[in-house]
Design brief:
Blueprint (H helix, E strand, L loop, with lengths): L2 H28 L3 E7 L9 E6 L12 H10 L3 E5 L10 H10 L5 E4 L2 H5 L3 H10 L3 E2 L3 E7 L2 E7 L8 H14 L5 E5 L6 H4 L6 E4 L17 E2 L3 E2 L6 E4 L5 E4 L18 E7 L1
Parallel strand pairs: 1-14, 2-3, 3-4, 4-5, 7-8, 8-9, 9-13
Antiparallel strand pairs: 2-14, 6-7, 10-11, 12-13
Length: 279
């Protein structure tokens, strides 16, 4: 083969290799976690600022030794409490990374937890709940806990994921959590499922926090619309950010932190921790 032919052949292979390298660089970039900020009004129930860190859908994925990357992100924002809205643990991955995060944050912040569908699928939800309680995490499964934050009484309510529940059983948990809370307090509901908006609208929660949708996995960079989400199908409506469900109720949905657990990567869809400021 002539030298010129060899050079031409080499140039032919360089472009596909460069495109493949660029493809993987894009994937790696959108796997980097970010912090998103959302600000809400306290609706006359909050007299001084309250800050929550919303952490969802970790699926026991790895974020450095002892989950240092997530711990640093949370510490930097100085939240008053951490809301763990489901799928922190997984039904296939080991618990190591989930426990590393819990053990790093549970002693530093008040933490509140509800199950997601993967914890229910694992059939170890009771074991997981017992572990969390042993670490000081408040586990909510159809009840409410009042916490005073900066002089504000805030009710943190929560319900289990409804995977194996009848609609009546799940609604009974919501009824009980609502009944245990106080109308004059700012009321937050932890519930893994964002698609249950019609149910949430029938209650008096000021804020609902959810995950589950993983941001739609692939987000169209021009429209901001996700591609596919569980229980919402293609082009899902509730995947990321703030949604006004009614005059009285807001919902914040996190894109979550799941990375290597999924069979396909995230595009234009950074994993995230959401910081919610109520003033």
């Amino acid at each position: 083969m002539k030298k010129a032919d060899r050079q031409h052949k080499g140039k032919f292979w360089k472009w596909p290799l460069r495109l493949i390298a660029l493809f993987f660089l894009v994937i790696m970039y959108f796997e980097i976690p970010v912090t998103e900020h959302i600000s809400l009004e306290g609706k006359g129930k909050v007299s001084s600022p309250v800050r929550f860190a919303l952490v969802t859908d970790l699926h026991s994925c790895y974020y450095g030794k002892n989950q240092w990357r997530l711990v640093r992100m949370i510490k930097k924002e100085k939240p008053d409490a951490v809301l763990l809205s489901g799928d922190i643990f997984d039904n296939k991955f080991t618990d190591d990374n989930s426990k590393a995060l819990i053990e790093a944050i549970a002693s530093a912040y008040p933490c509140f937890y509800v199950t997601g569908n993967h914890e229910i699928w694992s059939k170890r939800e009771n074991e997981i709940k017992e572990y969390l309680v042993s670490k000081g995490v408040v586990v909510l499964d159809g009840d409410s806990c009042t916490i005073n934050i900066n002089g504000n009484d805030v009710d943190i309510c929560g319900v289990d994921d409804p995977t194996y529940m009848s609609p009546e059983e799940w609604q009974s948990q919501l009824d009980n959590a609502d009944a245990m809370s106080h109308p004059e307090n700012y009321k937050v509901l932890l519930s893994h499922r964002p698609e249950k908006v019609d149910v949430y609208r029938s209650y008096s929660f000021d804020l609902v926090v959810s995950g589950h949708a993983h941001g739609g996995q692939w987000i169209n960079p021009f429209t901001g619309i996700g591609t596919l989400a569980p229980d919402q199908g293609y082009y899902p409506k509730y995947v990321s950010g703030l949604y006004e469900l009614s005059e009285d109720t807001d919902m914040v949905v996190s894109r979550g932190l799941c990375r290597e657990r999924m069979p396909y990567p995230r595009f234009f869809n950074h994993p995230e921790i959401v910081i919610i400021d109520i003033s």
